[in-house]
Structures are given as C-alpha cells and as structure tokens.
Amino acid sequence: xxxxxxxxxxxxxxxxxxxxxxxxxxxxxxxxxxxxxxxxxxxxxxxxxxxxxxxxxxxxxxxxxxxxxxxxxxxxxxxxxxxxxxxxxxxxxxxxxxxxxxxxxxxxxxxxxxxxxxxxxxxxxxxxxxxxxxxxxxxxxxxxxxxxxxxxxxxxxxxxxxxxxxxxxxxxxxxxxxxxxxxxxxxxxxxxxxxxxxxxxxxxxxxxxxxxxxxxxxxxxxxxxxxxxxxxxxxxxxxxxxxxxxxxxxxxxxxxxxxxxxxxxxxxxxxxxxxxxxxxxxxxxxxxxxxxxxxxxxxxxxxxxxxxxxxxxxxxxxxxxxxxxxxxxxxxxxxxxxxxxxxxxxxxxxxxxxxxxxx
Length: 359
Description:
Blueprint: E1 3-10, H1 14-25, E2 34-37, H2 82-97, E3 107-113, E4 116-121, E5 124-133, E6 155-158, E7 173-176, H3 180-190, E8 195-199, E9 205-206, H4 212-227, H5 235-239, E10 241-242, H6 245-253, E11 259-260, E12 264-265, E13 269-271, E14 277-279, E15 282-285, E16 310-311, E17 317-318, E18 324-326, H7 335-353
Parallel strand pairs: 1-2, 1-5, 5-18, 6-15, 7-8, 7-15, 8-11, 9-10
Antiparallel strand pairs: 3-4, 4-5, 12-13, 13-14, 16-17
Helix pairs in contact: 1-2, 1-7
C-alpha cells in the first residue's frame, strides 16, 4: 500500500531543501503532509561528489539557504573542500528545521493515477497530489557522440569522474568544453602535464563585475526559452566566463590557446575537418550535464523540441501538468535561483492543490 501525502519533494540539494523549508513555513508537516526523498547516502546533494581540489576559495559562490547562513554553518574557512563544507551545512539545515529527509531513496518512476501521482522508489510506494522535482543534473553527465569515440584506445573521463590533476601526470590530456568547470580543470591539469583545449564555439570572457542587472538579464534569457518549451541553454552560454586572476594567469602561461572542435576521434587521438591529427592519451569531457528527469517520463511532460514548457511566476510549474513543479531547472539552475524557485513552487503548488496554509 502506498503512503498518501499531499506533496513529495524529490531531491535534497539546494532546490529541494529550499522547497521543503517553504512548505514547512506554509504549515505543512514533514512526514505527514509532505516528504523529501533523496537518493544520496548523506546530506549535501551533488556537492558531496565534487573533486577534492574544489575548495570554498575556488568554487562559485554558495548562496545561503533560506533562514540559515552558510558562512556561520559551513564548518571551516576558504581552504576547506566544498565537498565537505556544503554537506556539513546541508546536514545542519535539515536538522535545524526538522525536514526528516528519507535517504537513500531512489525514485525509479512517477506515474499518473487519476487525480494523484504514484511515486515508486526503492524505499516504498508513495501517492501524492503534487510533486516538486529537484533532482538537478549531476546524475546525468553528457558526452556528445562524435564519430570514432568507441574506438579510442586511450582513456575517456567526464567532469563527474575527475578526482585529482596528478592522476594525469605524464599524459597528454585533451580538455573538451568551454564552461567554468572546463577552465578550472584545465588550469589544474596544465600544472602537471601537457594539455590541449578545444571548444565548440569560441569562449566569451566577461570583463567587469557580474552585477544584479546582468544577472537578471541572463536569467531572463534562460527563462524565455523554457517558457517557450525549449531545452534550457548552459549558464555559461548566457553569462560568459569571468576574467578572474586565475584565468588571467592561465592566459599568460599560454594554457588558453583554444582550438576549434575536432571532427572525429581516432584510435590514438582526434582529427580535424582539414585532416590535421593530434595524438592524446586522455579525453576529458567537460561537456556538462542534462536534467535528470527520466523518472518523470510517464507523465509525458516534454514537447517535440525536447524541452518542457514551463509556467508560473518563476517558471517552475509544468504547463502540461500543473501538479508538477521543477526546481533547479532552467532559470533556477543556480543556488540563488533554486532558493527563490523553491519558495515559488511551494506557494503555487499548495494553492493549485487547494491546500490550506498558514500564510
């Protein structure tokens, strides 16, 4: 028999915890009115899997969850690993607000059952009137399918597999991708071995501060796409790369001599359209992630374009099924965006379901 709830929140990263916080603030009781399911073995969301060299001094800003300061609860200074500090903060947050996250709990599928939704997981069955999905992207790394990829005799790894730059010492590493993670890993690996950097489009470096006005403009571009039912673009394609001191140092070392994307992969390396070849030992795919939404497939939320048409104040509500909100998707795929989206999703979903709240 399925446990009946008003709302199931899937995922306990920044977006999921923000949603749970706002549901509780609205008067819903964790474990009775709503439940948070998380597949990770411990608090921390995707942060617990980040590479050890990513510290609080090198990571993009970690924004506070609603109601609790990150700086006061991270458990260390800027030299602490992000994979330690953020999980410590999330754990303290869950305990402080009594969110009672059920983990590890992997949701395999969500199916329509009349006016309710059936959530199937390895920790039991749940029946919900509405869903707030906050599964993020870490579980779905993306590697483009280039000709010859299956015949490469070297090693292929994705950003999600990266551990230490020293693991590549003595090898020629081809870094593929133009995002912030690609730049960070290229910097580290180039310190210990030979690297070549390729991107599909020329990287766009941003001069000057990324102020609130620029941030709102970037979010608006992503939001317009998802409201039109198109797949969201990567963040860096909208914001560009910040010209930090580290990036300036890379430029001075000649590490940022970018080459255009190759046409195919050979058994020993890559080949460009003009016939030029390069032998490499490792291809590091810093090519991003896709939204982990396969478990929602039975709900038929996607358009022919492959995207999902979003509505609501902050574009968290699925147009095809208003009982479903996606947080951490599209314009809310950032820590600050996830916080705002969690609040909007909680308020809009409870209103749509006719749930009496304390606010």
